[in-house]
């Protein structure tokens, strides 16, 4: 998992335009909850895992493709040995190749739809995946690290040798995979799986918010104060507070509360700790306040949530 540890989690959205990588992971492997400032498409090509997204665990069998927008919190745990393909691409890549999009336009899953699509019923997507499968396996340099496309320039510019600077020119392989990605997205739009959502967000703020959210996720029981979070990304308290709420949709303290409940979900699903033990561990002074808060966000009690997860 060298790529995910040393590269994915420290990805610089300004440097990375698009990457395609394949992994083989052992049964029982768990990738922790995280978010990033770029898009991700995750496809299980062999095996079975549980993918966590938006307070739900989804069975991710062979052929299920998940789509995550920037700052979507997600993670997974493998129920068997798993092979997967991960496509990651920056908002700059999209905006460079779809000029009519603004910095406030974000691609998301169609409202109300599941966060995945089963490609077993879609031969067009299967054909693209087969081509990507051929390209992805060797997208590394001599040190085994993924290649970077340093400039998210439009493909028509990259195709022109006379106009392409050394920084803008990409390898033939990267060019092919970039075109395949755009073809894949086009099909997903045609099938009304994806839409473009216009909001007040500016994707240039995503890396700052990403840093703070991943700090919260790394230790949800000891989250930084609003001032500490602002200091972490070197902006003023007032500016950070406004930016965070505008980008995420809720205020900072509310997000920290939700993160504690999200951690409680993990403990309820993966441990034998009692509800009162979990309440104390995540910082609640009483069972009553924990149950009330849990029910506020998930519309069920911790005990019923645990039972539901066990019966899946």
Structure description:
Helix content is 41%, strand content 21%. The chain is of the alpha+beta class. 33% of the residues are buried. The N terminus is likely disordered. The protein has two domains: 197 residues, Jelly Rolls; 108 residues, Arc Repressor Mutant, subunit A, CATH 1.10.10.60. Strands 1-8-3-6-10 form a five-stranded antiparallel β-sheet. Strands 2-7-4-5 form a four-stranded antiparallel β-sheet. A two-stranded antiparallel ribbon has the order 9-11. The protein has twelve helices and eleven strands.
State the helix count: 12
Q: Secondary-structure element sequence?
A: HEEEEEEEEHEEHHHEHHHHHHH
Proportion in β-strands: 15-25%
User: How many domains is the backbone divided into?
Assistant: 2
Mean pLDDT: 83
CATH architecture of the largest domain: Sandwich
Instruction: Assign the CATH superfamily of the largest domain.
Output: Jelly Rolls
| CATH C-level name of the largest domain | Mainly Beta
Model regions low in confidence, pLDDT < 50 over at least 5 residues: 1-14, 138-170
Mind summarizing the main beta sheet? 5 strands, antiparallel
Secondary structure class reads: alpha+beta
State the separation between the terminal residues, measured CA to CA: 29 Å
Percent helix: 40-55%
Task: Give the overall silhouette.
Answer: globular
Strand arrangement, largest sheet? 1-8-3-6-10
């Amino acid at each position: 998992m060298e790529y995910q540890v040393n590269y994915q989690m420290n990805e610089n959205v300004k440097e990375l335009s698009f990457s395609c990588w394949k992994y083989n992971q052992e049964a029982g492997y768990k990738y922790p909850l995280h978010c990033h400032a770029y898009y991700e498409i995750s496809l299980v090509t062999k095996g079975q895992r549980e993918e966590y997204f938006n307070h739900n665990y989804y069975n991710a069998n062979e052929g299920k493709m998940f789509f995550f927008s920037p700052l979507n919190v997600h993670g997974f745990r493998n129920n068997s040995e798993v092979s997967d393909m991960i496509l990651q691409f920056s908002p700059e890549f999209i905006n460079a190749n779809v000029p009519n999009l603004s910095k406030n336009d974000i691609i998301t899953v169609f409202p109300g739809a599941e966060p995945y699509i089963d490609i077993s019923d879609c031969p067009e997507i299967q054909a693209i995946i087969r081509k990507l499968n051929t390209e992805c396996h060797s997208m590394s340099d001599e040190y085994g690290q993924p290649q970077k496309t340093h400039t998210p320039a439009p493909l028509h510019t990259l195709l022109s040798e006379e106009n392409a600077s050394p920084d803008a020119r990409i390898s033939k392989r990267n060019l092919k995979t970039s075109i395949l990605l755009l073809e894949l997205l086009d099909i997903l739009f045609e099938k009304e799986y994806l839409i473009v959502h216009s909001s007040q967000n500016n994707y240039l703020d995503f890396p700052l918010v990403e840093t703070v959210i991943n700090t919260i996720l790394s230790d949800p029981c000891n989250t930084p104060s609003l001032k500490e979070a602002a200091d972490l990304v070197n902006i003023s308290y007032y500016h950070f507070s406004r930016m965070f709420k505008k980008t995420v949709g809720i205020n900072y303290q509310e997000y920290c509360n939700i993160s504690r409940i999200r951690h409680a979900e993990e403990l309820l699903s993966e441990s034998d700790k009692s509800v009162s033990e979990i309440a104390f561990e995540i910082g609640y002074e009483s069972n009553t306040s924990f149950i009330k808060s849990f029910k506020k966000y998930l519309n069920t009690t911790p005990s019923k949530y645990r039972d539901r997860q066990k019966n899946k």
